[in-house]
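tool=predict chain=A
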Amino acid sequence: MSAHIIDSIFFKDLYGTETMRLVFDDLNLLQKWLDVEVALATAEAEIGLIPACAAEEIARRARAEALDTGRIKQLIDETVHPIVPLIRVLAETCGDDAGEYIHWGATTQDIMDTANVLQLKEAIVILEDRLKTLVDALTTLAVKHRDTVMAGRTHGQQALPITFGFKVAVWLAEVQRHQQRLAECKPRLLVGQFAGAVGTLASVPEHGLQIQQRMMQILVSACR
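tool=predict ok
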């Protein structure tokens, strides 16, 4: 029995797609957590806050498919915390003392919120592609039926004649406004976070803003 309709073997593709489900799949979420930790370590290594070899080892080991998800789940059950178990399991896989430098100066919400934004960024790409496909199809249909006469309707009743192409053009204009709204929301939505506990960057006072900026630059470059 499915826990939710989007997981139903019968109805899931009426309310979603396999591509979109993969974006919000647990393994992809785990990888996004890891991507944020890698970007943080890389940024900190560039300014000399942590050893470069440690950042390289963290990046090498930060692969969702290589981590023990069963152990992460067990530790989440024990700690009722999502990121501490991730750090422990990732640290156990790192050689030398590289694991000691994971999550340096960060707080849980830095990782989780930024990872969610990375998922949303992937989702937006899918939505943009689907909207473009829909716009192309509606444009073709509107042109093809620009002279196809049909009854217009008002209050659910037949009224003055219109063309089917005109009706489709109205749908097209609506979808194009959706495209515009989606584009306009991206600068406000796609914002990462790194500020440490209570959001003051107190854990990295001398380099906080520099780490924050470089970390986001790395994530933008990696996720294009």
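The chain has a mean pLDDT of 96. Residues 5-222 form a domain with the Fumarase C; Chain A, domain 2 fold (CATH 1.20.200.10).
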